[in-house]
Amino acid sequence: xxxxxxxxxxxxxxxxxxxxxxxxxxxxxxxxxxxxxxxxxxxxxxxxxxxxxxxxxxxxxxxxxxxxxxxxxxxxxxxxxxxxxxxxxxxxxxxxxxxxxxxxxxxxxxxxxxxxxxxxxxxxxxxxxxxxxxxxxxxxxxxxxxxxxxxxxxxxxxxxxxxxxxxxxxxxxxxxxxxxxxxxxxxxxxxxxxxxxxxxxxxxxxxxxxxxxxxxxxxxxxxxxxxxxxxxxxxxxxxxxxxxxxxxxxxxxxxxxxxxxxxxxxxxxxxxxxxxxxxxxxxxxxxxxxxx
Length: 292
Prior knowledge:
The protein is α/β, with parallel strands linked by helices.
């Protein structure tokens, strides 16, 4: 199958590589350079979203935020600058559920098909093909694209119609943020009390407090390895979507708001490009104590 892939960042590059390794011909477009490995796998740098769309049957998009998706789809030299008839757009970015419904409607009116399919699992999941993929769209389109999703992930769920995949991703990001905050508090408490946080984490991994966040990000907090798998700036964007949507729904998300303020503290102290596990640094700052 001829596949387009637009956006080759931390997540997009390994995802595109997996599709190429599976034998699909890739036509790609990105702001930065295309990785040598992708080129060796036969990917063609097509330059613009329009050119990618012209050459591809299915076009994956993996860019940072709602305005970038809109630009890719409807901007100058965007996907809609050529015929979308017979094309399937699969947006795997994490963006506004409300705007996603607008984008999907426009694409469908232009003769194309649209799935919103944001992911969870970070860079590790992208490399290993173990992403959770939350899909919004028509069942028939989902079933046709599912074999491609199976190259990228393990837990693949059609949540509902267009926009519902993005709603599910926002819910995911709320849970992840609150879990990171909980692990941060627990390990900071243990360290400040004089216990070995590494051994505390090891003990907790065998009990009801065990989680993927404690396993992966707890280790990052202890070892101080905050190179980004998923940047604080991107999680701030996702929680902003949650809080904006909550306002529109007239509901209160108090702990989501607290986590956003902690991310804001990290960003204000130069940490916006660190991994989101570095949220712990905002609590360490207030405690005047680093986990060690």
